[in-house]
């Protein structure tokens, strides 16, 4: 059965949100590089790639089900960053926003009783739990410090997969 127009549109809206996320993290990576925070920059570059990958996975799912995947206009990301800790606070807020969007996507799949989409979106629900946790762990490094300087946090974060 082909994907319904309503489900397809909901996925396309999420693809736009994922691409926006990818650009936001790319912009953050550029800022980190400019300021000489190599580890944070590497982490953000990787995270930006992951978001693009999420968009592609969703597009492939829509296409595999006979739908149309669209790249809509993507808003320019924010650029007024202050310091590393503030950037990770914004990242957590942003991921929480993405979680809400994914939950809305799951609601559409539930409403349409679209089993394949329910199954597909489930994996992204799990992914959001993991993504929020990863950023929260980084923020805890800033909060507790435990003798860490921002430079050691930069090394720790840069070494993360
Ligand atoms: Fe694709 Fe970080 O959410």
Structure description:
It is a single chain. The protein is built from 5 helices and no strands. Helix content is 78%, strand content 0%. The protein has one domain (5-68, 80-158): Up-down Bundle (Ferritin). The chain has helices spanning 5-35, 38-64, 84-111, 115-144, 150-158. The protein is mainly α. Helix 3 packs antiparallel against helix 4. Bound molecules: MU-OXO-diiron (FEO). Residues 18, 21, 51, 54, 95, 98, 131 line the site of MU-OXO-diiron (FEO). MU-OXO-diiron binds next to helix 1, helix 2 and helix 3.
- Low-confidence segments: none
Radius of gyration: 17 Å
Just give the CATH class.
Answer: Mainly Alpha
Shape: elongated
* Ligands bound, unique: MU-OXO-diiron
Keywords:
161 residues; mainly alpha; Ferritin; 5 helices; 78% helix; 0% strand; binds MU-OXO-diiron
Quick description:
The protein is mainly alpha-helical. Helix content is 78%, strand content 0%. It has a single domain, classed as Ferritin, core subunit, four-helix bundle (Ferritin, Up-down Bundle).
List the helices and strands and how they pair.
Blueprint: H1 5-35, H2 38-64, H3 84-111, H4 115-144, H5 150-158
Helix pairs in contact: 1-2, 1-3, 2-5, 3-4
This protein binds MU-OXO-diiron.
MU-OXO-diiron is lined by residues 18, 21, 51, 54, 95, 98, 131.
């Amino acid at each position: 059965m082909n994907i319904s127009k309503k489900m397809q549109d909901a996925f396309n809206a999420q693809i736009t949100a994922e691409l926006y996320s990818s650009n936001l993290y790319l912009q953050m990576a550029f800022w980190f590089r400019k300021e000489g925070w190599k580890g944070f920059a590497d982490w953000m570059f990787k995270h930006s790639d992951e978001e693009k990958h999420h968009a592609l996975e969703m597009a492939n799912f829509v296409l595999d089900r006979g739908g149309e995947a669209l790249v809509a206009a993507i808003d320019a990301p924010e650029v007024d960053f202050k310091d590393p800790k503030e950037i990770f606070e914004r990242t957590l807020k942003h991921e929480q926003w993405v979680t809400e969007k994914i939950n809305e996507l799951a609601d559409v799949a539930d409403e349409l009783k679209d089993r394949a989409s329910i199954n597909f979106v489930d994996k992204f629900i799990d992914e959001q739990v993991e993504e929020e946790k990863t950023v929260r762990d980084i923020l805890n490094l800033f909060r507790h410090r435990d003798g860490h300087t921002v430079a050691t946090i930069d090394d720790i974060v840069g070494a993360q997969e």
